[in-house]
């Protein structure tokens, strides 16, 4: 599938890297880019070869948000356009494999929430984050109202959203907004190491673990326990589980095939 504003590259070990490729606009996303993101997320979700997705930006920014000058003319209402853009949020959340945001610069507005929608977030120490919407006369979107309070709590989320200030990568790590802030020169190697570990893991178990954690946010304890039991019943019948025990007995690393 061809893209104009994105680059989708695949490694032999199952790591798919999706790069927002509008560096001249700080990777701001116009309507076409939002549509391409949704298509790319669907493609990775359906690919048997892709075991992990790394999402990043070209040049010196991750994504500076929505390109409001590049939305183009449309006969559809603003509500319909936003719903069309938000389809990508659901597509990202429904990818049944691990996703990593590699934040190499500014992540603002929808760009920040695009990163937050990934399972893991690693940022260069020179990166910055902002829910910049109110500075543009807008309210938060692209899933931020759902994601942000779950990551850092309601009052901290309100501080970031209502004030719209930029937060450093180190501060983002401190408050639990991201997983790691690493030296800029080490960003690629750090993310590569995590992506390779995930790609070598058991695909079904990782997918189920991701689903369990996401569902657990809104589940009761009895519901969560039942979900765990059902997932383990499925895992216990897989070749990957048998391979894991065989590798343990033979004192070697397991080779998971996704079956």
Please describe what this structure looks like.
This protein has a 6-stranded mixed sheet with strand order 1-2-3-5-7-10, sandwiched between helices. It has a 4-stranded mixed sheet with strand order 4-6-8-9. Helix content is 45%, strand content 16%. It is globular. It folds into 2 domains: 6-199, 2-enoyl-CoA Hydratase, Chain A, domain 1, CATH 3.90.226.10; 203-249, Lyase 2-enoyl-coa Hydratase, Chain  A, domain 2. It has helices at 31-46, 78-93, 110-116, 144-152, 154-163, 169-174, 187-199, 203-216, 221-235, 239-249, and strands at residues 6-10, 15-20, 52-57, 61-63, 99-103, 106-108, 120-124, 128-130, 166-168, 180-182. The protein is of the alpha/beta class and 259 residues long.
The number of domains is: 2
Q: Assess the beta-strand content as a share of residues.
A: 15-25%
**If you compute it from the alpha carbons, what radius of gyration comes out, rounded to the nearest whole angstrom?**
19 Å
User: In DSSP terms, counting alpha (H) and pi (I) runs of 4 or more, how many helices?
Assistant: 10
- Global shape: globular
**In order across it, which strands form the biggest sheet?**
1-2-3-5-7-10
User: What would you say the CATH architecture of the largest domain is?
Assistant: Alpha-Beta Complex
């Amino acid at each position: 599938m061809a893209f104009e504003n994105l680059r989708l590259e695949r490694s032999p070990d199952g790591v798919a890297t999706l790069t927002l490729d509008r560096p001249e606009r700080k990777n701001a996303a116009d309507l076409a880019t939002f549509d391409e993101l949704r298509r790319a997320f669907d493609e990775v979700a359906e690919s048997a070869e892709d075991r992990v997705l790394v999402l990043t930006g070209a040049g010196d920014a991750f994504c500076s948000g929505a390109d409001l000058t590049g939305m183009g003319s449309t006969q559809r209402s603003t509500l319909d356009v936003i719903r069309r853009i938000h389809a990508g949020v659901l597509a990202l959340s429904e990818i049944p494999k691990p996703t990593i945001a590699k934040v190499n610069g500014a992540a603002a507005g929808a760009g920040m929430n695009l990163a937050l929608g990934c399972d893991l977030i690693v940022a260069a120490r020179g990166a910055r984050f902002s829910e910049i919407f109110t500075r543009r006369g807008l309210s938060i979107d692209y899933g931020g109202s759902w994601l942000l309070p779950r990551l850092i709590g309601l009052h901290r989320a309100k501080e970031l959203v209502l004030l719209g200030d930029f937060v450093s990568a180190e501060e983002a790590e401190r408050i639990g907004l991201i997983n790691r802030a690493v030296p800029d020169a080490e960003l690629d190697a750090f993310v590569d190491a995590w992506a390779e570990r995930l790609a070598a893991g058991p695909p079904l178990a990782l997918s189920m673990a991701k689903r369990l954690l996401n569902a657990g946010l809104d589940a009761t304890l009895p519901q969560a326990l039942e979900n765990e039991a059902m997932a383990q019943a499925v895992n216990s019948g897989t070749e990957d589980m048998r391979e894991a025990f065989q590798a343990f007995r033979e004192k070697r690393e397991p080779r998971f095939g996704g079956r």
